[in-house]
C-alpha cells in the first residue's frame, strides 16, 4: 500500500494509505483531535428503491442538497475523508462536479451506492475510479446471487460490501464468503422508516432473529476468514460486540473512537446533512444544528468546547 498523506491532527499523527488504511499515532494513551478527519455527508434524499427500513426516509421525489454552494467544504482540512451518501448519490445532478471540486481541494471522497444502482451504472463508476474522484466504494447489498455481481465488486480494490445487522441473512454472507471481499456491518437503525418497520411485531421478530444469527456466527466469520476485512460502524459494535472475540490489546489498537451515540464523542468524525443544511454527531442523532461556515466550529460545538451548548 502507498502513503497518500501524513498530517498532524491535535496531539496525534494521521497516516492515510491508498487501500483505505488509516493509522493514528502518538506517545500518549489518548487521541485529541483539532478538527474532523472524516465526515458522513448526505447529499440527496432522492432514491427510487423505497426500502422499508430506510432510516433516511429517501423517496423518488426527495430533495437534493445545494452541494456546490456550501462554504464549509472550501475550508476542510486537506485529506479529510468524505463519505458521501443519500438517497442515491447518482441521482444528484451535481455529483460529478462536486467530486471534481473535492479532488481539487485534496479531499478524499468515498461513496456508498445500492447494489442495483452500482450494477446499472458500472461504466460511470469505473470512470469515477479511473479519474481518481472516488477512493472507497461502499456497495449496499441486496442480492448476493445476482449474475456478475461478485466479479463487478472485485474490479474495485477499495470496494466494501455494506450489510445491515438484522437485514442480512447468514445465507447471504455464505454466498459471498471466500472471494477475498471486504464487508462493513452496519447497525440496524431504529430511526425513521427503520423505526416504523421495527414497530411491526412480525418484522421485529424477523429482524431480531437475523441479529441473533449474526451475533452467534460472528466468531466463525472472523476466525474462518470468510472475508478479507470485516469492519463495523459504531452501532453495529454496540449490537454485535466484536470486542468479545479479540484481546483487549488488539481491540484498543483498532478501535477508532465513540461517535457520540451514547454521549461522549471521541472519534474525529461528524455528520452533515446537506439537504436539510444540518449537522450532528452521527446520522441517527436527533439533536441537529444549522450548518456553520467552518467545520472546526461545528466540531467544537458538538464536543461542547466553545460554550455554545
Ligand atoms: S435504504 Fe438506501 S437504497 Fe433503500 S431507499 Fe434508502 S437510500 Fe434508497
Summarize the structure.
With 309 residues, the chain is an alpha/beta fold. 29% of the residues lie in helices and 20% in strands.
CATH topology: TIM Barrel
Sequence stretches where pLDDT stays below 50 over 5 or more residues: none
Strand residue percentage: 15-25%
Number of helices: 10
Mean pLDDT across the residues is 92
Largest sheet: 10 strands, mixed
- Taking all Cα atoms into account, the compactness measure Rg is 19 Å
**What count of domains describes the coordinates?**
1
Which overall shape is indicated by the principal axes computed on the Cα atoms?
Answer: globular
Would you report the number of β strands?
Answer: 13
Structure description:
With 309 residues, the chain is of the alpha/beta class. It has a single domain, classed as TIM Barrel (Alpha-Beta Barrel), CATH 3.20.20. The protein is built from ten helices and 13 strands. The chain has helices spanning 95-104, 115-120, 122-130, 149-154, 170-176, 193-199, 201-223, 234-240, 248-254, 295-302; strands at residues 3-9, 12-17, 22-25, 38-42, 81-85, 108-114, 137-140, 159-164, 182-186, 229-232, 269-273, 278-280, 289-290. The chain has a ten-stranded mixed beta sheet. The chain has a three-stranded antiparallel beta sheet with strand order 1-2-3, with no helix packed on it. Strand 11 (269-273) and strand 12 (278-280) form a beta hairpin. The longest helix has 23 residues, at 201-223. The mean pLDDT is 92. The structure holds iron/sulfur cluster (SF4).
